[in-house]
From TrEMBL:
Its cofactor is [2Fe-2S] cluster. InterPro entries: 2Fe-2S_ferredoxin-like_sf, 2Fe-2S_ferredoxin-type, Adrenodoxin-like, Beta-grasp_dom_sf, PDZ, PDZ_sf. One of its GO terms (molecular function) is metal ion binding. It comes from the Eukaryota. PROSITE patterns: PDZ (PS50106). Belongs to the adrenodoxin/putidaredoxin family. GO terms for biological process: P450-containing electron transport chain. Residues 47-139 form the PDZ domain. Residues 1-24 form the signal peptide. GO terms for cellular component: mitochondrion. Keywords: 2Fe-2S, Iron, Iron-sulfur, Metal-binding, Signal. This is PDZ domain-containing protein. It comes from Ectocarpus siliculosus.
Length: 260
């Protein structure tokens, strides 16, 4: 069995995850079948422990075990996990909010977008039973639907088409005022996205927040728009959604900047 799949079964079979005094389950393993486990609840009141909230493409849930979430690596061998599916009997299925392809961003307030699959699984298995676990997911389908509503990048306050230079990681890119920053960086083969962002970004729709860069030494550039500010809450003013930013002259760009 592949390591990732082994971990998946551990996730469902862990005693910590499924206390036998509260839940019964069957896995199909004794018959040699690799079916997803089926759970049946014998306890009551777990719905009272579940909380859900949506904010744009973010889905925040607080769910007790058993979660019943099948996870997989977004990109084999790289950090980041996403939902492969949810199974009957788990609180994720019961919540009605968790579905395939959603990216797991946080567990208990900790960012796991840079965590490898094994660490994510260990964290979930180690979480105590009977206590709701705070999870944050990004729903790519919600991002795509909302992208159509994102405002156009603001018109530049400078003359269009004036040659300028962007310094990115010690490399100088030729650019023009009025051009879109994200498109210019991608055209220059700059790694705008982290591994998860590569797979889940909204393609410049202003929704996902994965194209964030830091713009420094950028004299005369307009401040970020209200839309950007809303998407980048808690980040320094110099951080921008590159897809919503118009180049306005020479600048130094830092890709994948830390949040603080
Ligand atoms: S690519 Fe999604 S916000 Fe910029």
């Amino acid at each position: 069995m592949a390591p990732a799949l082994q971990q998946l079964f551990l996730f469902f079979l862990s005693g910590a995850l499924l206390p036998h005094d509260a839940w019964s389950f069957s896995t199909g393993i004794s018959s040699g079948r690799a079916n997803p486990p089926a759970f049946s609840a014998r306890s009551h009141g777990r719905a009272a422990m579940m909380m859900m909230a949506k904010e744009g493409d973010l889905v925040r849930v607080s769910l007790p075990k058993p979660l019943g979430i099948q996870l997989e690596e977004v990109v084999p061998g790289s950090p980041g996990v996403r939902v492969a599916g949810v199974v009957e009997g788990g609180t994720a299925k019961e919540s009605g909010e968790i579905g395939a392809d959603m990216i797991l961003l946080e567990i208990g307030g900790k960012d796991v977008t840079s965590a490898m699959f094994d660490l994510v699984m260990d964290t979930l298995v180690a979480a105590p039973a009977g206590v709701p676990i705070d999870l944050v997911f990004r729903d790519p389908s919600a991002a795509a639907a909302a992208a159509a509503e994102a405002p156009e990048a603001p018109a530049p306050a400078v003359a269009m088409g004036v040659p300028c230079e962007l310094t990115v990681g010690g490399v100088t890119l030729k650019a023009k005022t009025g051009d879109n920053l994200r498109k210019t960086l991608l055209a220059g083969k700059v790694e705008v996205y982290d591994m998860v962002g590569k797979m889940t970004n909204c393609n410049g729709g202003g929704q996902c927040g994965t194209c964030v860069v830091q713009v420094v030494e950028a004299e005369g550039w307009d401040p970020r728009s209200e839309w950007e500010a809303g998407k980048l809450k808690g980040r320094p003013e110099s951080q921008r959604l590159s897809c919503q930013t118009v180049i306005q002259g020479d600048a130094t760009i830092v890709t994948k900047p830390p949040k603080k």
